[in-house]
Design a protein that fits this description.
It contains 13 helices and 13 strands. By secondary structure, it is an alpha+beta fold. Helix 5 (118-125) packs across helix 8 (191-204).
Length: 398
């Protein structure tokens, strides 16, 4: 049974006092996670955030978590349906961005390069796949991470063995065929991150999820993380299956924002972060598993990760801020105009950016603080209505 715990985004002291976990557990979490502050105390206007939350609640939108971080401090932390900070969520394609960060770590260790040819690397570990890799010898990591590999794969909706039934996912992925020269055409297909994940495992000499835990999740003080969907060879998918808490997604956002640093430690090379957020020749809005100027409508710098059904990590450099959301919103529309993306764009452009950039310096008052606390409490008690079909992996976990 889920126990309700409303983390109101008011003060660290208030957070310690709320919820069934008790002061000791909350204090331990606070030592790992970012501090929580009153929005107005660092120049953020809570009123637009309250209005946004009321809109989501009134429309019963199934937003499980929504977190806003400014200057490394949490100013807004909203959970619906009795959920809490300790819940994790299926991130879908946000997982791809994590895989790109792992490639960056290996790049810093001199083990991978954007121009690394992937087929010969995979053949070292899987000589049994040599014949299927024969037409992929020219494909480099940068092509796979920019979704311009030139590979073609026909997905079987609902029954595709790449996702559900393959005992050996890599063997399925290499059945894709090279149809166009690499680096020339953007085509968002999920065989690409499977191949990148395999390259990570070969270069790291351990499974991708184990490498991620040692080199990324543990250094960032994450908890409750889980990478699901391993096939019978023990390999996870590089493009989906990762489950993180919202606050840990926000840490990934801060890592991207601060050029690969976390609490003074360089986790990912700064040059790699710069490359991730640089458009590829094949798409002006996509780098290395990173969407660029995909959310903000006013032309200012913005980049981040997006997952199916409404999972987001958005970095706002001008505001030194990060926005994170997990949800089950409607999936109709295409990759660049899905309903869940347009709903999120409205949240960021109409409410979150005005909160982060108020026309006048906001004044902290007891009434504003209480209004935010009350709204977040109401939201936590509200059951959202899923905007799309709920899959077996969509339930929040602890």
């Amino acid at each position: 049974m889920r126990m309700p715990q409303v983390l109101c985004g008011i003060t660290a002291a208030a957070t310690l006092a709320i919820g069934p976990a008790g002061p000791a557990r909350a204090a331990d979490a606070a030592s790992r996670d970012m501090p929580v502050v009153v929005p107005e105390s660092i120049g953020v206007d809570s009123a637009p955030l309250v209005r946004m939350s009321k809109w989501l609640r009134d429309d019963k939108m199934d937003v499980r978590s929504l977190v806003v971080v400014k200057d490394g401090r949490i100013v807004f932390e909203r959970y619906g349906d009795g959920l809490s900070r300790d819940n994790n969520y299926e991130l879908y394609s946000v997982t791809k961005t994590i895989t790109a960060l792992l490639v960056g770590i290996l790049n810093g260790e001199g083990k991978l390069d954007p121009t690394t040819k992937v087929a010969p690397l995979i053949e070292q570990a899987r000589p049994d796949l040599a014949s299927e890799l024969a037409d992929k010898q020219a494909i480099e990591l940068r092509h796979l991470m920019s979704m311009s590999s030139g590979l073609s794969y026909q997905t079987r909706e609902g029954t595709d063995p790449l996702y559900y039934t393959a005992p050996d996912r890599l063997r399925v992925a290499v059945t894709s065929r090279a149809t166009t020269p690499p680096g020339t055409r953007f085509d968002y297909i999920d065989v690409n991150p499977v191949l990148v994940g395999a390259a990570v495992s070969v270069a790291a000499r351990e499974p991708e999820d184990a490498f991620a835990k040692a080199k990324l999740f543990e250094p960032l003080g994450m908890s409750h993380e889980r990478w699901t969907g391993a096939d019978k060879t023990g390999a996870v998918a590089g493009g989906w299956g990762l489950r993180l808490r919202a606050v840990d997604m926000a840490k990934i956002g801060m890592l991207l924002l601060d050029d690969g640093r976390w609490q003074g430690r360089q986790i990912v090379p700064a040059a790699w972060i710069a490359q991730m957020k640089t458009p590829s020749p094949a798409a002006a809005d996509y780098g290395y598993y990173c969407w660029i100027r995909h959310v903000v409508e006013k032309g200012q710098p913005e980049f981040g990760a997006m997952g199916f059904k409404g999972q987001f990590i958005t970095v706002l450099p001008e505001q030194h801020a990060v926005v994170v959301m997990t949800s089950l919103l409607p999936t109709d529309g295409g990759l660049r105009d899905a309903t869940y993306l347009n709903d999120y764009r409205r949240m960021v452009n109409d409410y979150i950016l005005p909160a982060l950039t108020p026309a006048e310096k906001p004044v902290e008052t007891a009434a504003k603080t209480q209004a935010l606390r009350d709204e977040l409490a109401l939201s936590n008690r509200t059951q959202g209505v899923p905007g799309t079909a709920v899959a077996f992996n969509d339930a929040p976990e602890k």
